[in-house]
């Protein structure tokens, strides 16, 4: 049997405490060793929390995708307007 991936191994309070300490520490590797986790995990948590706390809404990529969707709809909208005025 294969091993199952552990989900939410660490409680949210632990992750938030680690993020606060990460903001103030000078050496993230030492903090990771002290907490008993891998350094990339800290960066993953940091990026995930930024996304949840509103960073995703301000993401340049998300804004550009939104603009692309609007621009893709524009030709169809204009064609409908032209058809309407031709029939009037």
Give a verbal description of the structure.
This protein folds into two domains: 9-57, Orthogonal Bundle (Arc Repressor Mutant, subunit A), CATH 1.10.10; 59-88. Helices cover 75% and strands 0% of the residues. The longest helix is centred in the C-terminal third of the chain and has 28 residues, at 60-87. It has helices at 12-24, 28-35, 39-55, 60-87. The protein is mainly α and 88 residues long. The protein is elongated. The mean pLDDT is 85.
Portion of residues in beta strands equals under 5%
CATH class of the largest domain: Mainly Alpha
> CATH topology of the largest domain, anyone?
Arc Repressor Mutant, subunit A
Radius of gyration: 23 Å
* C-alpha end-to-end distance: 70 Å
Number of domains: 2
The total count of helices amounts to: 4
- Major pleated sheet: none
Task: Look at the structure and give the mean pLDDT.
Answer: 85
**Oligomeric composition of the shown chains:** single chain
| Class computed from helices, strands and strand pairing | mainly alpha
Which descriptor suits the 3D outline?
elongated
Spell the H/E element sequence: HHHH
Number of strands: 0
Helix content: over 70%
- What's the architecture of the largest domain in CATH terms? Orthogonal Bundle
Unreliably modeled segments: none
């Amino acid at each position: 049997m294969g091993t199952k991936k552990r989900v939410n191994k660490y409680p949210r309070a632990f992750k938030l405490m680690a993020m606060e300490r990460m903001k103030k520490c000078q050496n993230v590797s030492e903090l990771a060793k002290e907490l008993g986790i891998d350094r990339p995990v800290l960066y993953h948590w940091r990026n995930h929390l930024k996304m949840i706390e509103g960073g995703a809404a301000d993401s340049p990529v998300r804004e550009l995708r939104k603009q692309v969707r609007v621009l893709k709809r524009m030709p169809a909208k204009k064609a409908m307007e032209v058809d309407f005025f031709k029939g009037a």
